[in-house]
Hints:
Layout (H helix, E strand, L loop, with lengths): L2 E18 L4 E14 L4 E6 L10 H16 L7 H11 L4 H18 L4 H5 L5 E3 L2 E3 L4 H13 L4 E5 L5 H15 L4 E5 L6 H13 L4 E5 L7 H10 L3 E4 L6 H10 L4 E4 L1 H4 L2 H13 L4 E3 L6 H13 L3 E4 L12 E3 L2 E3 L2 E3 L8 E4 L5 E2 L3
The structure holds magnesium ion.
Amino acid sequence: MKIAKIETHRMAVPLIKPFKTALRTVKTAETLVVKITCDNGIVGWGEAPPTVVITGDSMSSIESAVKEVLAPFLFKQDFSNYEEMFQGISASCIGNSSAKAAVDMALYDCLSQSCQLPLYQFLGGHKKELETDFTVSVNGPEEMGEDAVSYVQQGFDVLKVKVGKDHVQTDIDRVREIRARVGDDIKIRLDANQGWTAKEAVAIIRKMEDLDLQIELVEQPVKAWDIVGLKQVTDQVDTLIMADESVFSPKQALEVVKNRSADLINIKLMKAGGIYQAQMINQLAEISGMECMVGSMIETKIGITAAAHFAASKKNITRFDFDAPLMMAKEVVEGGIMYAGRKIFLPQGPGLGITNVDIKGGVSLGS
Length: 367
Ligand SMILES: [Mg+2]
């Protein structure tokens, strides 16, 4: 099996409510959709949203990496040697993890279809359903409290609360407000998105421990580059610390697990450059006794379906942050994962299980 055609399409889908973190505000989910058609007619789907403040990848850079770097290489490859294919993607250029991820997931879609297996079974098949958390965007404490209650009423029992945007005292007020409103049975995890210094993080997290706010974990308290600070925080608090923006590649994961700079790793396909590299990160973590979460950027159901197949396939992946498609005001993907409240069911057909992408259903962005 060889690749006959690689197509890209810029798409945008409006969100129900703006998604706000310490790093950015997103009102519309923009993404580059990749469609790979094989010489036997099999079609694979992938996508990559531009997240310049996280990955450095813009819409134009993702598109040109797919068209000018990855496609010319891939047309020469054969799926019977897919090790060469994925090694080649990784070696084709420095960075560009989003473009690599979009192509990687479309190739895994094709591969698992050709083996007549759902992708999660092709990769290991550990579980066929998952439960996702739901994200509370960073706003004033009052608004966040109201949002948290509405998500709990919709059936979510794990809330991922965004903090780290302004004053540290406000972060404590945010979490106190949410805990007071939702009660003790709801799991609360925090994501500071690099918003604190190491000292601020230690002070805030200790304060929350003293207040008995029952925080499950804190994601990326410090800047992505500050691995020393990340370890300081991990060493100085009881609460679990999760690395997100500090770990893109397996090499960075190796440093984190070797030095115990965090307790957990959040793997995202857009950071790792796809499933092939994401598997390496998970294995490094697993042999070091460290569990992983799989999360995502603001992706449509294409990217989240790929991430969910990967996450479901592995025993060591124990936490799931797949709420992005639920934030979208419009459904543009047919097939893929199915949601029932917080539950996610993996499609049982071959590949990703995506049957069509309504490219015209999204807002088409000009190039
Ligand atoms: Mg995060």
